[in-house]
Write the structure tokens for this entry.
Amino acid sequence: MDVTQIFQDKVTWFQNPDIVPYVFVRDENLISQPGKKHRLDWFSKAPIIKDPLDLKELPFAEYIYHIENIAFGPSAMPMPRWVFYDCAVMPGFVCGFAYKKDKMPTSLKAKLPDFGDIDYVPLSLFIIIPTMHKGEWVAHNLCSVNSFLDKSDQFYGLGFLSKAFGLWYANVELCSGMTQWGSPALKLHSHYGHLEVIGAYAPVHSHAKTVTYRAQVNANTWELFFSKDVDLEFLEQYEKSGFEINPTDEKSMIEIQNKIQNNEGPFYLNASEILSKDLKAPLSIYRPKGY
């Protein structure tokens, strides 16, 4: 099944005229030529632009906070408001998809507080921040209303498409980020480009069992998240190193971390393998062929 058919059959909300992409960004951080780098026709709807420094947009921000706190509260990583302001919207921007408030279904409205007069209600959020390394951005946070909706009410692919939209919109060439070993998020983050492990263990982080990754953004791989097809390009370029990492074994993380620090890499993870395996199953570590 091709991705167009998947959008029609599974990602039905994507065609809803009352659901549009949004960008929550201060004027100085607006992207001058959005969507120029990655050529694909997924994001034809013009996004709504919201300014986090505008007091009228406070209700929009409150919805973002609410979604984020529900998603990350159980893992003790809810984002403080000052972090969102100082470290997210001031240097970078937030994006995702939003639903026209007066068109939202009753079942969704019942799951959300009413933060006052607002035209659109955000359904997801992806925070991305530019770094000092030219062309590289950090994917800081990603979540959506799917984390607290019943399965029958969820928006299929909402998280994946929110990040894809942000990478596309900002013309991101290199994306780095962090997630925890064994997290379902790894199945998603591994599909935006071949995933290099630049850190296998992070005791500096609140959660030491964190993988730090980097990917050369490649929009040609995005449809594989939906089709579940094997990434043949990855298999042509990389081979198993003979090492594995166990998401439940801190020792294996430290071993790979030491190999990275000893310049024995670069090491990569196979998105197709991550997608097909149980979250707690060991993952093969790959390296470029002929390395």
